[in-house]
Specification:
Elements: H1 2-11, E1 20-21, E2 24-35, H2 74-86, E3 90-91, E4 94-95, E5 97-101, E6 111-115, E7 121-122, E8 125-130, E9 133-146, E10 150-154, E11 159-163, E12 170-176, H3 183-199, E13 212-221, E14 231-236, H4 239-258, E15 266-271, E16 276-282, E17 292-293, E18 300-301, H5 304-313, H6 318-329, H7 333-339, H8 343-356, H9 359-376, H10 388-399, H11 405-416, H12 422-428, H13 437-450, H14 452-459, H15 464-476, H16 483-494
Parallel strand pairs: 14-15
Antiparallel strand pairs: 1-2, 2-12, 2-13, 3-7, 4-18, 5-6, 5-17, 7-9, 8-9, 9-12, 10-11, 13-14, 15-16
Helix pairs in contact: 3-4, 6-7, 7-9, 8-9, 8-10, 10-11, 13-15, 13-16, 14-15, 15-16
Bound molecules: adenosine-5'-diphosphate and magnesium ion (MG).
Length: about 500
Amino acid sequence: MSETVNTFEAQQQGRPTGPLVHGYEVIIGFETHAQLSTASKIFSRASTAFGAEPNTQACAVDLALPGTLPVMNKGAVERAIQFGLAIGAHIAPRSIFARKNYFYPDLPKGYQISQFEIPVVQGGAVDFFLGDEKKSVRLVRAHLEEDAGKSLHEDFIGQSGIDLNRAGTPLLEIVTEPDMRSSAEAVAYAKELHKIVTWIGICDGNMQEGSFRCDANVSVRKPGSPLGTRREIKNLNSFKFMQQAIDYEVRWQIEQIEDGHAIQQATVLFNPDTGETRAMRTKEDAADYRYFPDPDLPPLCISEQWVQEVRGKMAELPRNMAARFQASYGLSEYDATQLTQSLALAGYFEAAAKASGQAKLASNWITGELARRLNAQDLSIEQSPVSAQTLGQLITRISDSTISNSAAKQVFDALWDGATEVDAVIESKGLKQMNDTGALEAIVLQVIDKNAKNVAEFKAGNDKALNALVGQIMKASQGKANPQQVNELLRSKLA
Ligand code: ADP
Ligand code: MG
């Protein structure tokens, strides 16, 4: 389809060059199959539940028995609309189902019902941070289609079987422009997309069970050259493999080109055991599929009113929530984005902010200490041993000057290890900040007396010398002095 390639080419005009690998720019576009979370299939009433005995969830329509007709599942369309709204796309008022013809044992009809020329969701973009850099990957389209069945190779009996439970499962295929420029950016995109579909609840996101499968189209080029020929890595179902597969593929393509070989367009599979990609088939063109409108299905018509109804039922979207966090809590865009990585995390933040009345501090603790601890033990926010309310209490004790920041870390340790009462921990560990100015003043004077050298340096204009004195005083107070108060007292004594 040379026309498509030219469109992609045109879309890349004026975009900045990405990081180079051995002098080559890496170009990546994604096709992602998100399984929609409907109870029944896209064109039949059979169940979509995972893990049933083979062929117990395939009805006459899924088996393609003669005389059966497909009937569109409204829930699948609604989920496609939700997705379109979530990524700022155009929802086509009229889209068309097409037959994609190919022969394969797991495809009983001999064609897959998909959308070709007029997909239901058009355009839109997925925005995310790569490190602290903002990225936006543009989507070409998202279309509804049915999944195929599965071949089971039963080595122990030397036979292959077909399981049609998955046949007719609703999928949303989400296609990007070739906008990504590194494996890291591709993984960040995939994670963001995964976050969106699970956040709005249209897909369970279970990658092991195949509910969210990514195909990565990869090519390389010398900066400024036209797009190179791509190879498509199929069915990447873990973020780790995704990065490994793309990195391997990029190295392989560069080696081929450097050795004087042209890249052949192909579909390849990644083998996690060897860490290599291997060609599965040379790539078919759209023409090979002989697409044509499915005469069994009328055009899919979506009224503006339906779109508004769906919009009205949708929960707040991550990016709107992030904007609200910035506006109403004064958080940075980066922090707001971090805190809206999942609904659970956002909920945790809001609960801690409410409990303490200190949103900024809550944000710092959650993206700092708490995130570090959760990561280290590979825990999700739902599994945090410290509840949002408890963290809120801890933050309250920092903001009302009962404890210092360093004491708060000790309290947090205790909470992480199972303690639940913040005040009880402060009491039992004797961490209360010293609020008795008289006692503090005595310590300050003592430290000034004993550290003539630092005092002289500070008076000579070296502001850093003050830190040494503050350190001494904090130590002498066993960490109970309020560092800010110490600072002020010191400056006034030394003025
Ligand atoms: P198909 O793979 O079904 O033939 P398309 O031709 O629409 O579909 O392209 C699929 C994907 O390939 C899109 O995500 C697009 O961004 C990506 N793509 C197209 N050209 C290139 C290229 N030269 N390098 C990398 N990705 C590309
Ligand atoms: Mg493809």
